[in-house]
């Protein structure tokens, strides 16, 4: 083989090292997914370049994305006319087992509690159901992703999971030899018990088993290194809230309430969990605060609940717990959300220009301030 062809093969391999597997967040060359690059002259003075790609699993859902990036990497070489040929196969079981073992060796524990972790963790809580906590979680996660943050979300409401529906997810996580890949939708890496077969059956988990479900979502899933992790907690102050505090002591609590006293009084109890566990309450979000109708702002559920919660928590906890957002009551939150797209997003995944999106962007910015 001529030196020129060897140079081309080496250069293409180097360019492929900048192609990142979208699930594992690593270079496809580092992961051993490129088993060979062969350059062969063509009669028309061009060069056939055959790239041998070994996917981690057969029918990888993101294989088209990887192949498109490989094509782009070859096209970026301008010193010769290259004709790419991509041959796709799957890794052998031994090679895959070795890769998974290496990945697990790098992360022998909950990745969100290791020293130096950059991930900001926000647990979204409410004192009672029906205040729109999951909708707030979904739209906040989508907002973070649209703002450019690497975002992950865990549906920690084991009994009343709803994030898959709100994000339009119908797929199951990819099982990579016992390590799960989160499902990505609208730019957010998601994990929920609702993604698994039989999840529609009643789940009666308590105590240690419930805590183990959260530990598995944290330790047995390859999250990479997200900037933000949101947890949609079950309503109230039960086992899962305590499990989050024990498993993720660096999590910050965001309390969701509606304006009326019956909701705000109970919401305070969720925030007071922080008196018993090492979790800081970051702020309060008042949902369904008002409804604008023909130029008039209607307070359908009363007013002042969010401010009452913020003031009571500030007094009880001894530090400032601000009211961070007052979100409107909008039919499109339900209509768009139930279609599988968070209401803050356009069809292309960008933030809408609506007041709702502006509120969520402001909330996200406040949360990311130290």
Gist?
By secondary structure, the chain is an alpha/beta fold.
How would you portray this structure in words?
This protein has 370 residues and is α/β, with parallel strands linked by helices. The strands form four sheets. An eight-stranded mixed sheet has the order 8-9-5-10-4-11-12-15, sandwiched between helices. A three-stranded mixed sheet has the order 1-2-3, with helices on one face. Strands 6-7 form a two-stranded antiparallel sheet. Strand 13 and strand 14 form a beta hairpin. The N and C termini lie far apart (57 Å). About 3% of the residues have low confidence.
The CATH architecture term of the largest domain is: 3-Layer(aba) Sandwich
| Overall shape | elongated
Cα radius of gyration in angstroms: 24 Å
Instruction: Report how far apart the termini are.
Output: 57 Å
Question: What structural category characterises the helix and strand content?
Answer: alpha/beta
Q: How would you spell out the order of helices and strands?
A: HEEHEHEHEHEEEEHEHEHEEEHEHH
CATH topology of the largest domain: Rossmann fold
CATH class call of the largest domain:
Alpha Beta
How many strand units?
Answer: 15
Please report which band the strand proportion falls in: under 5%, 5-15%, 15-25%, 25-35%, 35-45% or over 45%: 15-25%
How many domains in all?
Answer: 2
Strand order of the largest sheet: 8-9-5-10-4-11-12-15
Low-confidence segments, ≥5 residues, pLDDT <50? 199-208
Q: What is the count of helical runs?
A: 11
Q: How helix-rich are the residues, as a percent range?
A: 25-40%
What would the average pLDDT be, to the nearest integer?
81
* CATH superfamily annotation of the largest domain: P-loop containing nucleotide triphosphate hydrolases
Q: What profile does the largest beta sheet have? A: 8 strands, mixed
Organism: Bifidobacterium panos
Domain MIP18 family-like: 9-76
Subunit structure: Homodimer.
Keywords: ATP-binding, Hydrolase, Iron, Iron-sulfur, Metal-binding, Nucleotide-binding
């Amino acid at each position: 083989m001529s030196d020129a062809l060897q140079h081309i093969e080496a250069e293409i391999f180097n360019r492929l090292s900048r192609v990142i597997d979208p699930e594992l967040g690593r270079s496809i060359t580092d992961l051993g997914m490129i088993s060979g690059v062969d350059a062969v002259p063509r009669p028309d003075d061009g060069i056939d370049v055959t790239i041998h790609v070994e996917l981690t699993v057969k029918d990888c859902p993101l294989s088209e994305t990887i192949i498109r990036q490989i094509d782009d990497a070859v096209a970026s070489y301008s010193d010769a006319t290259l004709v790419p040929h991509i041959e796709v196969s799957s890794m052998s079981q031994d090679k895959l087992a070795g890769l998974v073992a290496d990945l697990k060796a790098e992360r022998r524990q909950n990745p969100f509690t290791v020293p130096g972790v950059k991930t900001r963790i926000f647990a979204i809580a409410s004192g009672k159901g029906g205040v729109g906590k999951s909708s707030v979680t979904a739209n906040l996660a989508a907002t973070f992703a649209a703002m450019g943050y690497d975002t992950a979300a865990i549906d920690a409401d084991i009994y009343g999971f709803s994030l898959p529906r709100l994000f339009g997810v119908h797929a199951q996580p990819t099982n990579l030899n016992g390590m799960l890949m989160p499902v990505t939708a609208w730019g957010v890496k998601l994990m929920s018990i609702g993604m698994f077969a039989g999840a529609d059956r009643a789940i009666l988990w308590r105590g240690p088993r419930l805590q183990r479900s959260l530990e598995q979502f944290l330790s047995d899933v390859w999250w990479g290194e997200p900037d933000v992790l949101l947890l949609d907690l079950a309503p109230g102050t039960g086992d899962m809230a305590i499990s989050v505090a024990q498993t993720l002591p660096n999590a910050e609590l965001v309390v969701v309430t509606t304006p009326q006293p019956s909701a705000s009084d109970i919401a305070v109890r969720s925030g007071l969990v922080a008196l018993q566990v090492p979790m800081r309450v970051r702020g309060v979000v008042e949902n369904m605060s008002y409804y604008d109708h023909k130029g008039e702002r209607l307070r359908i559920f009363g007013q002042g609940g969010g401010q009452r919660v913020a003031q009571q928590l500030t007094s009880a906890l001894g530090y400032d717990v601000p009211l961070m957002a007052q979100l409107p009551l909008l039919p499109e939150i339900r209509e768009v959300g139930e279609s599988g797209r968070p209401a803050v997003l356009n069809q292309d995944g960008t933030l809408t220009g609506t007041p709702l999106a502006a509120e969520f962007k402001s909330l996200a910015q406040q949360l990311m301030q130290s």
